[in-house]
Amino acid sequence: MIRTFCLALAVIAASSSVFAQKANDEKKPVKKPPAPFHWVNPLPKGDWPTGLKHSTFKSPAMNIDVGYCIYLPPSYEASKNAGKRFPVVYYLHGGRPGSETKSIRLTTYIDKAMRNDDVPDMIYVFVNGGKVSHYNTPQFDSMGEDVFVKELIPYIDATYRTIAKRESRGLEGFSQGGRGTTRIMFRHPDLFSSCAPGGAGHSTEKSISENHGRENESLVFAEGYNTWDLAREYAKNPKPPLKILVHVGTKGFNYQNNLEYMEFLTSLKIPFERLIVEGVPHSAMLIYEKRGLELMKFHAANFGLLQ
């Protein structure tokens, strides 16, 4: 009798364990097989804001065309004769491999905010991050960071009516783009004044730091090329000063490691603001739906556009 009862308890416990594991598995994001990588990805069909355009530039280093999407604010064309210039926010998409069209749905919120005069007019540029998004990976013949920093930014400044100085240049990204934003802002503080990394996978970046640049068996980065070591290096001489807003949803799978990373920044005495979005999963769109106006106003304030 006792043996039968114990066996029954064991079966119930095993079943509970299976169900608990299944529930946990269901919470993990299901990864779709990545689409083939292309440096140029045309704007997909859709009801896009009139200010959103797709274009390409010739990469001097690779001698190929590279795509980008650009959102020009409502007053851009109307102020052409007056020669009015605008600050720029560069947006780094999530996921791997890169595509300049991955985050363009955010322009729905950006365009609405500007047309409603909720924020001043700004240019937004959506970047193709390369084969390993926003990283320099010479082993895969892809220098995503260099194409962005050394080639795209000068091209945008030469082609559009931008205010071509760091005080009017912002950087933002989510997930993989949040990793890219964090690394690039600490490597190039001379280029950006306003930086908003979101939902970044800082636990992976910490593992890279602790394993001599190794993310996995086939992906190895240069020593120190990660969000933890670069923050340490920047903290030694934090100039020019960066204005930073770390944002993340409380239901996102990177929530806890973002809290850890914020504690790390505090320990380094690197000033930053935080935007914690309650009840939102790992989604830039849902964060923009709830609190996107605050992200836009963060950049606008740093550019000196808000009183």
In order across it, which strands form the biggest sheet? Answer: 1-2-4-3-7-8-11-12
Count of strand segments:
12
| Distance between the amino and carboxyl termini | 79 Å
CATH superfamily: Alpha/Beta hydrolase fold, catalytic domain
- N-to-C SSE string, H for helix and E for strand: HEEHEHEEEHEHEHEEHEHEH
Which structural class fits the helix and strand makeup?
alpha/beta
Runs with pLDDT <50, length 5+? 1-26
Number of domains: 1
Strand content: 15-25%
Helix content: 25-40%
Shape designation? globular
User: At the third CATH level, what is the topology name?
Assistant: Rossmann fold
Number of helices: 9
Identify the CATH class.
Alpha Beta
CATH architecture: 3-Layer(aba) Sandwich
Query: C-alpha Rg, in Å?
Result: 21 Å
Average pLDDT level: 91
Q: Please summarize the sheet with the most strands.
A: 8 strands, mixed
